Amino acid sequence: MFEQILFPTDGSDGAAFAFNHVVDLAARHDATVHILNVADTTGNGILQIRGDDIDSLEQEGDRIVSEAANRAHQRGIDTVTEVRQGEPYREIADYAETHGFDLVVMPTHGRRGLERFLLGSTCERVVRRADVPVLTIRPDDDVRVTHPYQNVLVPTDGSNCANQALAIGADVADGEDATLHLLSVIAITALGADARPDIQMGMLEENAHELLDEAAAFAENAGIETASTTVEYAPSIHKAILTHIDDHDIDLVVVGTHGRTGFDRYVLGSVTEYLVRTSPIPVLTVRAPEADTKDGSG
Hints:
Elements: E1 4-8, H1 13-29, E2 32-40, H2 51-73, E3 79-86, H3 88-99, E4 103-107, H4 114-117, H5 122-129, E5 134-137, E6 151-155, H6 160-176, E7 179-187, H7 197-221, E8 226-234, H8 237-247, E9 252-256, H9 263-266, H10 271-278, E10 283-286
Parallel strand pairs: 1-2, 1-4, 2-3, 4-5, 6-7, 6-9, 7-8, 9-10
Antiparallel strand pairs: 5-10
């Protein structure tokens, strides 16, 4: 399913860590890897942009993409290299959309550390904007990157975006010969005060099981057998997902960028952002088409 992979790189140790996984994916799926460096000419970190500054940035970019391409060629992987100028997240998202990639792979942070690539920066903005699924990897010591994937987890709340993530997750499980796990988390803190909490919780649990049954049926129709369908109560959705990852030896989690309560729930300070920041395994984020996000229903 991954025939064309985009890998943006700044030549950092974080990018090199993520590129190891890109090479493994490309080798398994016989994919072409497009290696992109964006010379940041917006002035973020450069006091004054001059012609020789831009030339220097582009020369450095050429060196970075050439070194990455050479590493890929050693594994027999075809590459395309590109150096562009502009604001990195815009150029990455536009390049991904223009060329119709199957996947974008990025480290969560690189040359300047965590603060650069999250909280309004390159990685987080690409996750928000790209129509292409984005695979993010934390280049940290506590991260486990295993390939081929053996176990793939898809959390779901039944929203359109979660269903989109399910479709991608099923494709990945099929292409990787991996086992698919489905999870629905009921946030206890979201229940609020209620005169009949047992009834409310019972209804929520019934609904969650129905969502998982539908998700399992979708996977079965796609020829994918699900290993588990789990409903969990937890005070924190993202922590419940992290616990499930550890308990079931999950290698990849596939999640939508937003859910039933709209885009803001799942990005800025929310489930997907926390997963991207803290997951001990790669996170594949899937953004639903723009038309599906405007009413906040998914």
